[in-house]
């Protein structure tokens, strides 16, 4: 009988030990799952904040690129226009031709000018971000690379950025935008036109200019300023796209000036415009 009692006690103890062990194993596994869920939640949280920073940066980049294109379009592709130039309103329009072809910015120069404007503008935009409850660290100043194609302008911005939430962090470094723009086409038209201008330095090669613009689905506006003619190239769709106070506001793709050896621009009138019919 005593032996039977001892066996019963051992069985009960075994059951208790197994139950306690099972409970401990459940608690450990449950704790590990909770910890894993917590870590995953932290990662999801910091990733969502990183996506918010990505959107902020890309919005800055988009607006900076649009402003850069608008500005350089009125200054012959320059942010800082070299001499000689014509001061017209608040802009400095470069002379591309004055009895002979002058310094004309090629596509590479204009890409670098755009990059310079974008870098400075993005930096200002970042400084205006609202206060954030999480930590955003920019390791370097913005660095932009611009590529002009016939129908688009592509910008790649490099800004090493770290987003920290608690003890979790995510790194971002590259941001990009692609904007529809016929700047590349306008530069090709400009180069072909200046080649014709060199053949006839004392006159405006009108027929060639009209053929070039119509062939490339552009429009051109000519305006007289004494012995200077200001040339502005437009996308045809831009001619009636924006209006202010009932008047059409034109957004040029490219603006430049040519000085002719005339006292007055007789025969040109005050302003000429062509557009595809």
Describe this structure in words.
Helices cover 43% and strands 29% of the residues. The chain folds into two domains: 1-77 and 106-180, no CATH class; 182-277, no CATH class. It contains four helices and twelve strands. A hairpin with a 2-residue loop joins strand 1 and strand 2 (91-98). Residues 36-43, 239-245 and 265-277 have low confidence and may be disordered. Helix 1 packs across helix 2 (107-127) and helix 3 packs antiparallel against helix 4 (206-215). The longest helix is centred in the N-terminal third of the chain and has 72 residues, at 2-73. The strands form three sheets. It has a six-stranded mixed beta sheet, with helices on one face. Strands 3, 4, 5 and 6 form a four-stranded antiparallel beta sheet that branches. By secondary structure, the chain is of the alpha+beta class. It has helices at 2-73, 107-127, 183-199, 206-215; strands at 85-88, 91-98, 135-138, 143-148, 152-165, 168-180, 218-225, 228-235, 242-244, 247-249, 254-259, 271-274.
Secondary-structure blueprint:
Blueprint: H1 2-73, E1 85-88, E2 91-98, H2 107-127, E3 135-138, E4 143-148, E5 152-165, E6 168-180, H3 183-199, H4 206-215, E7 218-225, E8 228-235, E9 242-244, E10 247-249, E11 254-259, E12 271-274
Parallel strand pairs: 2-11
Antiparallel strand pairs: 1-2, 3-5, 4-5, 5-6, 7-8, 7-12, 8-11, 9-10
Helix pairs in contact: 1-2, 3-4
Q: Percent of residues in beta strands?
A: 25-35%
Query: Major β-sheet, in short?
Result: 6 strands, mixed
Oligomeric form? single chain
Overall domain count: 2
Strand order of the largest sheet: 1-2-11-8-7-12
The termini sit apart by 116 Å
- Which runs of at least 5 residues are low in confidence (pLDDT < 50)? 36-43, 239-245, 265-277
Silhouette: rod-shaped
Class derived from helix and strand content: alpha+beta
Q: Helix coverage percent of residues? A: 40-55%
**Order of SSEs:** HEEHEEEEHHEEEEEE
Helix tally equals 4
Rg to the nearest angstrom? 33 Å
Total strands: the figure is 12
Provide mean pLDDT, rounded: 79
């Amino acid at each position: 009988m005593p032996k039977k009692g001892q066996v019963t006690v051992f069985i009960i103890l075994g059951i208790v030990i197994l139950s306690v062990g099972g409970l401990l194993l459940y608690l450990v596994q449950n704790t590990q799952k909770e910890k894993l869920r917590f870590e995953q939640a932290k990662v999801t949280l910091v990733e969502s904040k990183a996506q918010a920073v990505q959107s902020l940066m890309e919005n800055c980049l988009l607006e900076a690129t649009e402003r850069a294109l608008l500005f350089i379009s009125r200054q012959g592709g320059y942010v800082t226009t070299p001499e000689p130039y014509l001061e017209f309103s608040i802009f400095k329009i470069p002379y591309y031709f004055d009895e002979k072809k002058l310094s004309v910015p090629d596509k590479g120069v204009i890409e670098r000018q755009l990059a310079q404007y974008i870098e400075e503008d993005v930096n200002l935009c970042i400084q205006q971000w609202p206060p954030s409850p999480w930590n955003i660290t920019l390791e370097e100043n913005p660095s932009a690379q611009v590529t002009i194609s016939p129908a688009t302008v592509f910008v790649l911005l490099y800004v090493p950025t770290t987003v920290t939430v608690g003890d979790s962090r995510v790194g971002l470094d590259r941001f990009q935008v692609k904007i529809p723009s016929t700047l590349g086409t306008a530069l090709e038209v400009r180069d072909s036109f200046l080649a014709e201008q060199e053949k006839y330095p004392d006159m405006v090669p009108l027929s060639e200019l009209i053929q070039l613009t119509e062939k490339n689905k552009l429009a051109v506006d000519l305006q007289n300023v004494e012995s200077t003619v200001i040339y502005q190239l437009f996308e045809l769709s831009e001619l009636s796209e924006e209006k202010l106070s009932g008047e059409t506001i034109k957004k040029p793709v490219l603006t430049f000036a040519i000085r002719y050896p005339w006292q007055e621009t007789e025969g040109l009138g005050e302003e000429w415009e062509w557009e595809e019919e």
